[in-house]
Input
Amino acid sequence: MDQLRLATRLWLAMGAMILFLAIIVGSAATASNKSRVSYATTSAAMLERIKVANQWANLEDVNGVRSHAVVVSNDPAVASTFKAEIASSIGQIDALQQQLEGMGLSDNDRTQIKKIIDLRKKVMEIGGQSALLKVTGQPGELDALVEKQYRPAVQALQQAHQEFVTLQDQAYENDRKDFDARTRVIVLMSALGVAITIVAILIGTGFLIRSIRQPLLQANALAAGIAKGDLSQAIDTSRQDEFGDLMKSLAAMSESLGRMVQQVRQNTDSIATASAEIATGNNDLAQRTEQTSSNLQSTASSMSGLTQNVQISADNARQASTLAATASSVAQRGGDVVRQVVSTMQDINDSSRKIADIIGVIDGIAFQTNILALNAAVEAARAGEQGRGFAVVASEVRSLAGRSAEAAKEIKTLINTSVEKVASGTQLVSDAGITMNDIVQSVRKVADVIGEITAASGEQSAGISEINGAIGNLDQMTQQNAALVEQSAAAAESLRDQADQLARAVAVFKTSNLATTRQQRPMRDITPRPQQVAYQRPALLPSAKAKPALAARPAARQLGSSLKSAPYKAAAPVVGQRSALARPVAPKPAVPKAPKAPKAPTAPAGDSDWETF
Output
């Protein structure tokens, strides 16, 4: 049994179980199918008999009603109407009777059918007698025959049909019960076969588990010993199944683990030395990074003050631009008012000229009035004594015309003086309008210049703000770099501690034929002496160089993201490399080197890497 493969044993057990289940299921399915087919055939035949019997009984009932109507009715139309239908129903009844007799009937069925046939003949005979009595005109005897013989015979026939249908129903129910009983027997036999199969499976499973458990316990004990560090256990590899392969694999694992433990012991010193050098270099890099961060903070403070001053200048320029825009608006409104005054003076000049014209008309009217008064005086003198009163009136009219002419001349003189002054004022107002337009244009130019100054101040403020932001980002990245360097130093210290723990951990392993001695690799003195770097205050960048400085920001961000993604790789020099600021170390006597350790992945770092970082 131990020489068979585990898969073979499992397949044999599974095949036997499937074979037993297939036999049980096949037998049960065959018996169930036979029982179902038999039940279906018998049920179909019984249902067909029940159907034919019901049709026969229905036709008998209908014919009985028709015959009774023909016997009791005195209307010839009723007899002529039902005669053909009664004959057709009798033919159908005969066909159903022959069909029913041709089916597989039991003795009870045939006895009941014979009873129905006899009762049918009796009903037909009584019906013939009733028709004869009706033809001979004997209504009293006809009624007595119908009541005493025809109706009881019809009821007996109907009862016989119902008994036949009931007999078929009982046969159908008995057949169904028989089918249920056969089905229960098949189910019980199948359950018994499944139970026997399960018992056999449990017994076989017990033997199979027993053949599997023992080698598993051996493998478990071997693995427990290896987990405790015992690599010198004897392993039996004589089995030919999967557990034999497992034992062989465990033996190979134990041997390989022993070699690996020896290599780990040999390489632990190299790891400790490398971690010490990494920690020392990271400490020096942390000091320089802190100094750089301090310088950047000072620069950021200066740039912040400059940004505030430029912001104040930009605010003042914006206020000046607002005032210039206000003055331009006021000057423009003044120009509009002056243009309105010029228009008004032109209207006044035109009105004065019209008044002068009107005064000239009045002067002409006074002159003509004076001439008319003179003519009137001449005519009054010619009239003598009769025209004396008219002469006096003409004299008064002439005096009035003279005064009107004098007043018109004075008004004309005044109007001409006013027209001249209005013309002079109109010219002065026109000159003032031209001057006001020049002032408006000048104020607009001043507002445009102040607007350009404001825009330039805003651009300078934005540029200096971007420079300040760039310096702030650089300061933040420098602080992050310092934090990363501190984390790298802590990681190096942790690596050294873990190397010591690893050495103590592999010391618990017991090997049989592998060397267990360990050569201690001396640690080199690589303590760096950082140089004193004088602090130089960075010069402020002019506004023209703000954009190139900002263009360098993506590179700085890329450097910060790369440091975040690999905080230890960039500052992990290989064993034996030194910092750029480290002083030379005096040569030491040669010591025996430990066995060569497998190469660990190292970053391509050198002296230039420390300076660049």
Summary: The first helix runs from residue 6 to 72. Residues 514-613 have pLDDT under 50 and may be disordered. Residues 6-221 form a domain with the Four Helix Bundle (Hemerythrin (Met), subunit A) fold (CATH 1.20.120.30).
